[in-house]
């Protein structure tokens, strides 16, 4: 019996040793994989292979890819693991026409910059240049142009501040067919109304209005001019009521009804 037990133990010892050897080998292989993976990651992060290779810009129309990349501070020497997305986005948002910025990195070395630009509402005439005015009320001095797109309202005597912010907000409320019919808007404040404006329309009429109720009354413009003899041009007063005064006979004044069904 004792010999039988001894033989059985002797038979089992090699099997136990083999199992332990296999476990040790598996652990060694796992440790080696982890070790070499760390070596590869460290080597990659410290080598030119981790530098930004591809920069993709999306959503830009006003600013070129080169302008946005330059503003971000990103370059082909930038390590992709050291990119500070919030800091980079903040730099790009300093540009007047940029509304939002989203930055994503894609392994191994690609950066995607997605921007959304503010909408251009009008242009400010300054000297012989036209400066874009954005929906946030900012004037983009660095984008001055000698020509402007057709049907873009031209503003005079405005500057950044409360009046311009209100002007932009009111223009944004108008249907495009009405805002496109405006040629010029002059800021002409009075002692009794700091928000008074004078408009020159593409159809030859002038409009006297206040920014306090501009969009509310201007939305009825098509209905108002439909009640006026097209051969007579003059000033449409929208400040309090709605009146028309012909150019050739300044004494003649006609009250015009607003179509309450429009707007």
Summarize the topology:
Blueprint: H1 2-46, E1 54-58, H2 65-72, H3 85-92, E2 98-106, E3 110-117, E4 120-126, E5 129-134, E6 154-156, H4 162-173, H5 176-179, E7 182-187, E8 196-201, E9 206-210, H6 214-218, H7 221-226, E10 234-237, E11 243-246, E12 253-255
Parallel strand pairs: 1-3, 4-6, 6-7, 9-10
Antiparallel strand pairs: 2-3, 4-5, 7-8, 8-9, 10-11, 11-12
Instruction: Give the radius of gyration.
Output: 36 Å
CATH architecture of the largest domain: 3-Layer(aba) Sandwich
Estimate the helix proportion, in percent: 25-40%
> Any low-confidence stretches, pLDDT <50, length ≥5?
none
Count the helices. How many?
A: 7
N- to C-terminal distance? 108 Å
Strand order of the largest sheet: 5-4-6-7-8-9-10-11-12
> Looking at the structure, what is the overall shape?
rod-shaped
Query: What's the domain count?
Result: 3
Mean pLDDT equals 86
Order of helices and strands: HEHHEEEEEHHEEEHHEEE
CATH fold group of the largest domain:
Rossmann fold
Main sheet characteristics: 9 strands, mixed
CATH class category label of the largest domain: Alpha Beta
SSE-based structural type: alpha/beta
Number of strands: 12
């Amino acid at each position: 019996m004792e010999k039988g037990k001894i033989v059985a133990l002797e038979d089992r010892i090699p099997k136990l040793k083999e199992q332990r050897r296999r476990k040790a080998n598996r652990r060694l292989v796992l440790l080696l994989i982890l070790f070499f993976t760390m070596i590869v990651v460290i080597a990659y992060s410290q080598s030119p292979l981790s530098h930004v290779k591809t920069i993709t810009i999306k959503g830009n129309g006003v600013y070129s890819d080169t302008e946005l990349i330059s503003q971000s501070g990103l370059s082909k020497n930038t390590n992709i693991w050291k990119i500070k997305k919030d800091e980079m986005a903040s730099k790009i948002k300093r540009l007047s026409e940029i509304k939002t910025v989203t930055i994503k990195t894609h392994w191994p070395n690609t950066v995607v910059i997605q921007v959304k630009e503010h909408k251009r509402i009008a242009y400010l005439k300054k000297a012989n240049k036209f400066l874009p005015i954005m929906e946030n009320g900012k004037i983009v001095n660095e984008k001055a142009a000698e020509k402007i797109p057709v049907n873009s309202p031209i503003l005079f005597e405005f500057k950044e501040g409360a009046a311009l912010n209100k002007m932009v907000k009111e223009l944004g409320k108008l249907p495009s067919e009405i805002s496109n019919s405006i040629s010029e808007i002059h800021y002409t404040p009075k002692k009794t109304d700091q928000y008074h404006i004078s408009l020159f329309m593409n159809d030859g009429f002038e409009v006297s209005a206040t920014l306090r109720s501009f969009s509310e009354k201007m939305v009825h413009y098509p209905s108002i001019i439909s009640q006026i003899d097209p051969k007579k041009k003059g000033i449409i007063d929208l400040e309090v009521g709605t009146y028309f005064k012909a150019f050739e006979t300044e004494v003649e004044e006609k009250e015009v009804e607003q179509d309450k069904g429009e707007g």
